[in-house]
Structures are given as structure tokens and as C-alpha cells.
Amino acid sequence: MVSQITKGIKISVLTSFEGTYFKNYKIHFAFSYHITIENQSKDSVQLTTRHWEIYDALNNLELVDGEGVIGKKPVIKPGESYTYSSGCLLSSPIGAMKGYFNMVNFTSTRSFKVIIPTFKLSAPFALN
User: Fold this and answer.
1) Tens-place pLDDT, residues 3-16
2) Global confidence as pTM
3) CA 31, CA 4: separation in Å to the nearest integer?
4) Phi, then psi, of 89 in degrees rounded to 5
5) Spans of all domains in the chain
6) Separation between Cα atoms, residue 22 and residue 114, nearest integer Å
7) Known Pfam families for this protein (predicted)?
């Protein structure tokens, strides 16, 4: 598990390899990731958007931007956390992801970025 705290918001990430499958005559490697967002600050915050950078073993980059996470824009009160699961497909058995969440502090009404630390995606058979 990797974790990082930005402005009182702790992001923790756990990953799993889900398997391989063929689509459009090409093999794909499926990974899931489970993210916990813990509010260690004194203010309520809301996650508004996300930005992902997804890399495969050949350093190919896919950028993903969107509203909220899994169709939600959670409000997280001080001392509370929000966990969700999602996934991605890579064209290689090894890769990585990193990014950030844009959030709004309800007390100051200011937007701020919360860093999602770089985490590795690797199929067990691809490691020595």
C-alpha cells in the first residue's frame, strides 16, 4: 500500500491484478485499485474532479480527467474517510498510475489539489 498526505487529506492505494483477456486481437492486463481518502483536516471537503496519468511498461501514457469518482462527488467530514474501487487496462503486465483529486474546502470555499501518489501495477508472473 502507498499513502500520501496533502493539506490534511490522506490518500492510500491498494492494487490487485485481475487477469488477462483478449479484445480486438490484443491481450490486455486488468488491474483494480482501491483508494481510501481520509480527511485528517479540521474542515469538510468535497471531491469534485480527478486526473490520472496511466503508464504501461513501454512508457505509453493515457490521461484521464473526469467529474468525481465512480459517478460520485463525496463530501468527507473531518475524521471520516471515503473508499472506492475502480480499475484500468494495460497493454503490458507492468505499469503505474499517479494523479490528483481536485477538492473544495467548505470552510474557505477554496479549491485545492490532493496528490495521488504513484503506485505500481504488476502482474505477479511479470516479477522476478
Assistant:
1) 999 999 999 999 99
2) 0.94
3) 21
4) -115, 135
5) 2-126
6) 35
7) DUF525
- List strand residue ranges (DSSP E) for 1-128, in order: 2-6, 9-23, 26-39, 45-56, 61-67, 75-76, 81-90, 94-105, 111-122
Q: What angle do CA 114, 116, 121 make, to 5 degrees?
A: 170
Angstrom distance (rounded) from CA 99 to CA 51: 5
What single letter denotes the amino acid at residue 114?
V
Please give the distance of CA 65 from its chain centroid, rounded to a whole number: 11
As averages over each run of 10 residues, the pLDDT of the chain (128 residues) reads 97 97 90 98 98 93 96 97 97 96 96 98 84
Is the CB of residue 13 less than 8 Å from the CB of residue 50?
no
- Residue 62, all three cell numbers: 493515457
Cell of 68: 468525481
CATH of domain 2-126: 2.60.40.1470
Q: Quick one: cell of 33?
A: 485499485
Q: Which three cell numbers stand for residue 46?
A: 468535497
